[in-house]
Design a protein that fits this description.
It comes from Microbulbifer okhotskensis. This protein has a 5-stranded mixed beta sheet with strand order 1-2-5-3-4, covered by helices on one side. It is an alpha+beta fold and about 450 residues long. The two termini are about 80 Å apart. The protein contains 10 helices and 5 strands. About 25% of the residues have low confidence. Among the domains are: about 130 residues, Helix Hairpins, CATH 1.10.287; about 190 residues, no CATH class.
Length: about 450
Amino acid sequence: MSNFLQQQQAVNETLEAVRVRMQLLEGERQQIEEKLSELQVQGSKYQLLDEISERLGRLEAAGAGGMFWADNFHENASAQVIQRIAESTRGYNESLDRLQQQRDDILNRMVLCNEEIFALDDRADELRREEEESKFEFEITREFEQPGFRPMVMPWHNQGEDENRFRLCVFVSLFMAALLGYLVPLYTLPEPESQVVEIPERLAKLVIEKKSKPKPPPEPEKAKPKKEEKKPEQRPEQKVAKQEPKPSKKEKKQARKKAERAGVLAFKDNFQDLIQDDLDNRLGQQTQLSTEGKKENRSQRSLINAASTAGSGGINTADLSRNVGGSGSNLGGVAFTRVESSIGTEGDFAGEDRPLSDGVGPSRTDEEIQIVFDRYKATLYRIYNRELRNNPALQGKMVLKITIEPDGSVSKVSTHSSDVDSSSLNAKILARVKRINFGAKDGVPTITILYPIDFLPPG
């Protein structure tokens, strides 16, 4: 029989003895409970006797015992009755207390037996667990080897073996040093070959400083006929207004109130960002601004006529699209140019500072167009930021093709090219640019420009 089986058998025997003792205690407890229940049935009677004896004792102490006993009153007899009642109630209380004490002792012993049973159960479980673990154990046996003898000497004590080892190391080191000192001088290194470094010829480039072009003198003769052409366009509007009947003051007030409550005027506070400033006070026709630093020299702006029906006034091969003069008439009246954007990061449309206009006639300069777009930069980026909430990875470049009328309004705007993957953003940008007003300018033809806008997320 193994050790685990013996221990388990001993634990089981002890556990069985404790359970038998527990059953005996349970039987004693039931007997005591029955006796207590019998005494509790008579408890109310003994309680009344106790109260009666107490009150009779008070009555005897007050000298009024005859009132209770009447004619048969005897002091000795009443005292004996009171004493007998007190003894019977005292005996009842003592037996009740004794039974309760026995019950408490039995309950305490039962608690101890339960604790002992729990401990024995834990021990039995532990033995079963150890027995299961012992099945997976295996013994490793090996022969005992006698350790070698080591002298009981401290490390700093000198020994003959240590001295011999030190002398051997010193001798070997000196021999190697002498051998290297003899062999190294015998080897001669070849002379290094000198390499001739060819210095490349320096190239010099003559840069001719560009002379600043003088400002063209004002041409009053050409400005007058253009002003005269616009006057007939304004006269028909005044004539149409005169033909309408003048409403009365009451009708005007009523119409003004109705218009403020309904229609577009009801949302007049929502279109504060569309209020245009007078560009003539800021710019003028010959304004020249430069808000960007020096950049890489690239080709100058070329003015390309969008109307193919324009006449030819001569050929100048030295400067094909700049300062082209002649007496040809422009039949289309539409010009096509490109404008640099400062919104976002600078891209493929960056270049050096550009002149105000090309040709002899007045035109809208790049600076004027750029200033107007700078004013609406925040509005365009608000639209982009709202779209960025739906698509955080939205970015790219849009190139807009914009047609600007002489009065500054945008008659046509479309997407020339775009790598922004959002049709809603393109539509909102086109709708917002369509409402931009570049300000009226005298003698300016209708032009079509390409304007790039880079949209990049912040950070």
